[in-house]
Design a protein that fits this description.
- The complex is a heterodimer of chains A (about 350) and B (about 250).
- Chain A is built from 12 helices and 15 strands.
- Chain A is of the alpha/beta class and about 350 residues long.
- Chain A folds into 2 domains: about 230 residues, Rossmann fold; about 110 residues, Rossmann fold (3-Layer(aba) Sandwich), CATH 3.40.50.920.
- In chain A, the strands form 3 sheets. In chain A, strands 3-2-4-5-7-6-13 form a 7-stranded mixed beta sheet, sandwiched between helices.
- In chain A, helix 11 links the parallel strand 14 and strand 15.
- The longest helix of chain A has 18 residues.
- Chain A starts with a strand and ends with a helix.
- In chain B, helix 1 crosses helix 8.
- Chain B has a domain of about 160 residues: Thiamin diphosphate (ThDP)-binding fold, Pyr/PP domains (Rossmann fold, 3-Layer(aba) Sandwich).
- With about 250 residues, chain B is an alpha/beta fold.
- Chain B is globular, with a radius of gyration of 17 Å.
- Classes of the chains: A alpha/beta (about 350), B alpha/beta (about 250).
- At the A-B interface, helix 3, helix 4 and strand 9 of A face strand 1, strand 2, helix 3 and helix 5 of B.
- The structure holds thiamine diphosphate and iron/sulfur cluster.
- Iron/sulfur cluster (SF4) binds next to helix 9 of chain B.
Chain lengths: ~350, ~250
């Protein structure tokens, strides 16, 4: 096994991408993800790759669309305002079934907001984000190691489904340093019978999202929908301390990371608290939570926003006589494990005693 | 009998949707002839834009990827960087290239991307029903300049070829028209040079075509062709601005 190295979260994403065969990177600077383009500009040339600092996020996503349309592995990264600008391109990529990896090391909004960690882009990420009825797979790492591992996985998922995959992190996950272990990427082969290579010895191909003939677009959308449904087999989540739990706290990304210490504190004090951490935000682990809700009645969502994943939690468990509580905080400061503990304690007292 | 006029191999044998007297069809044909001439059909990747030319992918017998409105030069950048040995071209209208896509064309040219851009300037937004384009002439009536383009409030018709000529990254920039056989022959020559620039790896090549839109100009095809000569060419002069014959 490889030695552990002390790596910054953003860099782990860039390293994972290159290891997974990403050879094209297009981006426009924005805090807090600048280490990604900086790393790519330094290291892509070593592996014969191409780095372009584009004129905007709009250009970046469309360069990604172009490079990916040839079957190459390519990535762009940005942070919230930049991800908003990319949405038209992401919509076209979904409509045209073009893979690609998009990283959002999100910051706080609305508007220019600030550079604090925030989970305010959850709706945008999990509901498509741009125009039209589409979805992207959304992966939510909670550690530097996961930044690395899930970035590699993102490329496989993108190719497997011919669909963009979004990695949703935040300033905390981008900036913190942790030990990680690198591993060899095991190359998988995916069909390339759709790529732009030039019509040599074969019929011409076209990649498009425009469908104007009677019924064509309806069929196209149903086909896409089937694909989004089939992504359910990729659902990933992590649970901790679920045995005998009376209250399940649900969180993703950086908050889940902090919560791991909090839940340990609660258990140390004899409170029966469990942790559920969705790793895929789309597809969301509705069924897994539903199953848990047959034996456990109390749930609590914790987020760095005013209640977004909360809606998915309610969709999973809210239809029964379950209690779904919420603690959220808009951007400005990161809650400490102690603060989260106090919030959980309040709910625990109210619901369990 | 010898056949003197036949369909280029790079064009598919289907009827086009262009209005009678529209120059898009002629420009498509010129591009297809050059693809045939240089034998690059099997290496060609076209980037279609949004506008009346959006069905490019139906007409060309080559691989084509669709770009969002205005973004074809960015898409082509991604394609060409990933497949440097392919012949990559974009085909864009004046709304697409000179309005919404201004940033993308300027920066693709400035980076010296090894792509060929076909720019069709018909002084209107054709597809959306004849609204003002950045290239709309002074005083020209469109559906959004019902009293004629007023330079004081709407700005000036933009000269993209002249603009791109100034960029150190561009290699070949020219403006052509297809309104008569003399101009058509010249246009073909310029387009050939644009193809050669990419094929020889010399850099970014750009050909602007002055093009008639009889439908939105509310003219007969004949009147529209005359307008190209009388109104457009004096303001948008033809010729090579940069990077003429090697
Ligand atoms: C983001 C976005 N905005 C607006 C449109 C609507 N739209 C489609 S084509 C077009 C302009 C077409 O004009 P031009 O590029 O000059 O091409 P032409 O049709 O004249 O050939 C516009 C505004 C769009 N498709 N996407
Ligand atoms: S609307 Fe104008 S540009 Fe469009 S096809 Fe008709 S004549 Fe050509």
């Amino acid at each position: 096994m490889a030695e552990a190295e002390f790596i910054k979260g953003n860099e782990a994403i860039a390293m994972g991408a290159i290891e997974a065969g990403c050879r094209f990177y297009f981006g426009y600077p924005i805090t807090p993800q600048n280490d990604i383009p900086e790393y790519m500009s330094r290291h892509l040339p070593d592996v014969g790759g191409t780095f372009i600092q584009a004129e905007s996020e709009i250009a970046s996503i469309n360069m990604l669309l172009g490079a990916s349309s040839t079957g190459a592995r390519a990535m762009t990264s940005s942070s919230s305002p930049g991800i908003s600008l990319k949405q038209e391109g992401i919509s076209y990529m979904c409509g045209s079934q073009i893979p690609g990896v998009i990283v959002n090391m999100s910051r706080s909004g609305p508007g220019l907001g600030g550079i604090d960690p925030s989970q305010g882009d959850y709706f945008q990420a999990t509901r498509g984000g741009g125009h039209g009825d589409y979805r992207t797979i959304v992966l939510a790492p909670h550690s530097v190691q996961e930044n690395y591992d899930l970035t590699m996985k993102a490329f496989d998922l993108a190719d497997k489904y011919r669909n963009p995959v979004l990695i949703l992190g935040d300033a905390l996950l981008g900036q913190m340093k942790e030990p990680i272990r690198r591993r060899k990427y095991r190359k998988k082969e995916f069909p390339k019978d759709w790529t732009m290579t030039g019509a040599k010895g074969r019929e011409k191909r076209l990649i498009k999202s425009l469908y104007l003939s009677e019924g064509e677009l309806t069929d196209h959308n149903w086909m896409l929908n089937k694909k989004y449904q089939s992504m359910k087999r990729e659902i990933m989540f992590e649970t901790q301390f679920m045995e005998g739990a009376k209250l399940v706290v649900v969180a993703f990304g950086s908050v889940a990371r902090i919560l791991k210490s909090t839940v340990q504190m609660a258990r140390d004090r004899g409170m029966k608290v469990g942790l559920f951490r969705p790793i895929t935000l789309f597809p969301f682990p509705y069924a897994a939570l539903d199953k848990i809700s047959h034996s456990i009645k109390n749930f609590m969502a914790l987020e760095l926003n005013t209640g977004q994943m909360l809606e998915d939690l309610k969709l999973s468990v809210g239809h029964k006589k379950n209690q779904v509580d919420f603690y959220g905080r808009p951007p400005g400061s990161i809650p400490s494990p102690d603060e989260l503990f106090n919030e959980i304690k309040k709910i625990y007292k109210k619901r369990i005693g | 009998m010898k056949q003197t006029f036949k369909r280029p191999k790079a064009l598919v044998d289907i009827p086009s949707h262009f209005c009678p007297g529209c120059h898009h069809g002629i420009i498509h044909r010129l591009v297809a002839e050059c693809i045939d001439l240089y034998g690059v059909r099997e290496k060609t990747i076209g980037v279609a834009s949004v506008g009346c030319s959006v069905f490019l992918y139906d007409y060309f017998n080559a691989d084509v990827v669709e770009a969002p409105h205005g973004r074809a030069p960015a898409v082509a950048t991604g394609v060409k960087r990933a497949r440097p040995d392919n012949f990559v071209f974009t085909y864009q209208g004046d709304g697409d290239l000179a309005a919404i896509g201004t940033a993308e064309i300027i920066h693709a040219a400035n980076r010296g991307e090894q792509i060929t851009v076909i720019f069709v300037n018909n002084t209107v937004f054709g597809m959306t029903g004849g609204q003002m384009a950045p290239t709309t002439m002074s005083g020209q009536e469109t559906t959004t300049t019902p009293f004629g383009r007023d330079l004081k409030t709407n700005g000036f018709p933009i000269k993209m070829s002249e603009l791109l000529t100034e960029l150190p990254g561009s290699t070949f920039v020219a403006r052509a028209a297809v309104n008569n056989s003399k101009n058509l022959m010249k246009a073909k020559k310029l387009l050939k040079r644009a193809f050669e620039v990419q094929i020889n790896g010399e850099g970014f090549s750009f050909v602007e075509f002055l093009s008639a839109c009889p439908t939105n100009w509310k003219m007969t095809p004949k009147q529209a062709t005359e307008r190209v000569q009388e109104e457009m060419i004096p303001y948008f002069p033809l010729g090579v601005f940069k990077g003429g014959q090697e």
